[in-house]
Design goal:
Keywords: Coiled coil, Cytoplasm, Cytoskeleton, Repeat, TPR repeat
Strand content: 5-15%
Low-confidence stretches: 1-38, 72-114
Number of strands: 4
Helix content: 55-70%
Radius of gyration: 22 Å
Strand order of the largest sheet: 1-2
GO molecular function: microtubule binding
InterPro entries: RMD1-3_a_helical_rpt, TPR-like_helical_dom_sf, TPR_rpt
Pfam family, one: RMD1-3
Largest sheet: 2 strands, antiparallel
Number of helices: 15
Shape: globular
Subcellular location: Cytoplasm, Cytoskeleton
Order of helices and strands: HEEHEEHHHHHHHHHHHHH
């Protein structure tokens, strides 16, 4: 695995493009490199070989189906079926291959069941009092959360080497990015996410045993995937898993961590086979995960704290849909709507649950 730097930070002179062709063409690649990083170049060569192999395999499959009067189509349920060709549907199939990824979906927010309220090892009582005030602001209105960010930034230079301060500074950026999402300010949202991710990484560097540092770093990684290339998403997906599992190891009683990790597994389980091949070419083995494993994490979260998060209920329902258990899916979508919550993530989850209910009831 590469370092925690993004691809574009590691390879400023390297461009990798994976594009979907037209009129039934599969994937084309272009690699250009002026780097001396031979190990990275070798991995990218493997990616090129894998994509070329996929091209050949797909052409063979497509020609065989064409001879039989059929083609491939990805159904709404996420499964792939063979059916009579309608002409241009092959292109749609490959466009859909890029829609899912190995990282969590959009805004993974932002509940805090068990954070570091005891300030283990902290002897600065003035700092402890200040951070307790910040924690109260975090639980308040959008304006109070933005006030928390401003107050933390005002003391940033004073406490750059304090893990309790730095993970809260990262969290404050994430909460502010949620406010920016509600306001439709994508420029500010992006800036807040990447700045917060850097602060969270600093917190981990200070204390690798701090669960909150790993938690907020993982969540900010998840949000950052909205703004990076597919190659970077693969890398960030592995980083997310590593740090979320570390947070779970350090704090196994936090239901929100099980939700976050379950969502990661869900994305892997529904990931297209093309992206899985690409990940394998770069890293030697693809991410693994099943719908049953994702469901197990969501239900574990519910066991720890029933009906705690509308988004968790939504994903339980989505898992049951993947398992073709519509009855249980509908029950969980109804729960998702009933559970209180006003974050951008929760509001979007309720809207999605409503859409599913209109379709399946």
């Amino acid at each position: 695995m590469f370092s925690n730097l993004h691809f574009k930070e590691i390879l400023p002179a390297l461009g990798v493009g994976i594009a979907v062709g037209v009129s039934g063409a599969v994937m084309s690649y272009r690699l250009r490199s002026q780097t001396t990083l031979t190990s990275v170049g070798a991995r990218l060569d493997k990616l090129a070989e894998a994509i070329a192999g996929l091209q050949r395999e797909w052409r063979e499959v497509r020609e065989t189906l064409k001879a039989q009067g059929g083609t491939l189509k990805r159904t709404n349920s996420g499964f792939i079926s063979v059916h009579a060709s309608s002409g241009d549907e092959d292109d749609d199939f490959f466009e859909e291959a890029y829609e899912g990824f190995t990282t969590p979906p959009e805004a993974l927010l932002y509940k805090d069941a068990e954070e570091s309220v005891e300030f283990e090892g902290e002897t600065n009582l003035e700092l402890v009092a200040f951070l307790r005030e910040i924690d109260k602001l975090f639980l308040g209105t959008d304006e109070e959360q933005e006030t928390a960010l401003s107050r933390l930034l005002a003391r940033r230079l004073q406490y750059t080497h304090n893990v309790h301060f730095m993970w809260r500074l990262a969290k404050a950026h994430l909460l502010a990015s949620d406010v920016a999402t509600k306001n439709g300010d994508d420029t500010s949202k992006k800036k807040l996410i990447f700045e917060g991710k850097d602060y969270a990484f600093t917190a981990i560097s200070i204390d690798e045993t701090n669960a909150d540092a790993h938690k907020w770093y993982s969540l900010l990684i998840g949000l950052a995937t909205d703004y990076v290339s597919n190659q970077e998403k693969i890398k960030l997906g592995y980083d997310f898993k590593e740090h979320m599992l570390k947070a779970l190891e350090l704090r196994p009683g936090d239901p929100y961590l099980y939700n976050y990790y379950g969502r990661y597994i869900y994305e892997i389980a529904t990931m297209s086979w093309i992206l899985r091949k690409a990940a394998a070419a770069i890293y030697g083995e693809p991410p693994s995960g099943t719908i049953d494993e994702a469901l197990e994490n969501f239900l574990k979260a519910e066991e720890l704290q029933p009906e705690f998060f509308s988004t968790n209920a939504l994903y339980v329902g989505k898992c049951y849909l993947q398992k073709r258990d519509t009855k249980n899916a509908v029950e969980w979508f109804q729960k998702a709507i009933r559970i209180p919550g006003s974050s951008a993530d929760e509001l979007k989850s309720k809207e999605e649950a409503q859409l599913y209910l209109r379709k399946y009831t």
